[in-house]
Design brief:
Elements: E1 4-8, E2 14-17, H1 20-24, H2 27-33, H3 37-43, H4 52-61, E3 64-69, E4 74-78, H5 82-96, E5 105-109, E6 114-118, H6 128-131, E7 135-136, H7 143-153
Parallel strand pairs: 4-5
Antiparallel strand pairs: 1-2, 1-3, 3-4, 5-6, 6-7
């Protein structure tokens, strides 16, 4: 998979997108994927390129999961509880078939700064063995900006 998606981890809605921050900054697209009006209003005055991190985190705080395809791996970034995120990811992959048995998946819980690298088969069955493998990760987000935005959204 080389595309990007926004996945609503609560409703299961998803949308193929060109650029995450720019796409969710469009009020019509934000409504389409289920972003609440009050969070969409917080995004509108921001510039999609300059304010990229706050825009992405605001969308994720509403239950959206950022899906990034770079052929291998496919990365899922979220702030939802893993109990919600992992089943939503599992359903998304079943519907879209954008990952094969040997595809490498990276699941990043941005709120807790942990992640796991796994295969499609690891998402099937009980989640506890997978969750035990989550470990601390370095993120591509500036730490202060990540922390400040998450704090604002609490």
């Amino acid at each position: 998979m080389k595309d990007g998606y926004w996945l609503n981890g609560i409703t299961g809605e998803y949308a193929l997108i060109d650029e995450h921050a720019r796409w969710i900054s469009d009020p019509a697209q934000a409504r389409r994927i289920g972003l609440p009006e009050e969070l969409s209003a917080r995004i509108q005055p921001r510039h999609w390129h300059r304010d990229r991190v706050p825009i992405l985190l605001t969308a994720m705080a509403a239950g959206l999961i950022r899906v990034r395809g770079h052929v291998d791996p496919i990365t899922f970034e979220f702030t939802l509880l893993w109990e919600q995120a992992v089943p939503a990811i599992r359903r998304f992959l079943a519907v879209t078939e954008c990952a094969g048995e040997q595809s490498r998946l990276q699941l990043h819980d941005l709120r807790h700064r942990v992640g796991v690298s796994c295969r499609l088969a690891d998402l099937e069955g009980p989640l506890e063995p997978l969750l035990e493998r989550f470990t601390a990760i370095a993120l591509n987000y500036p730490e202060a900006e990540l922390e400040n935005t998450l704090e604002e959204l609490r």
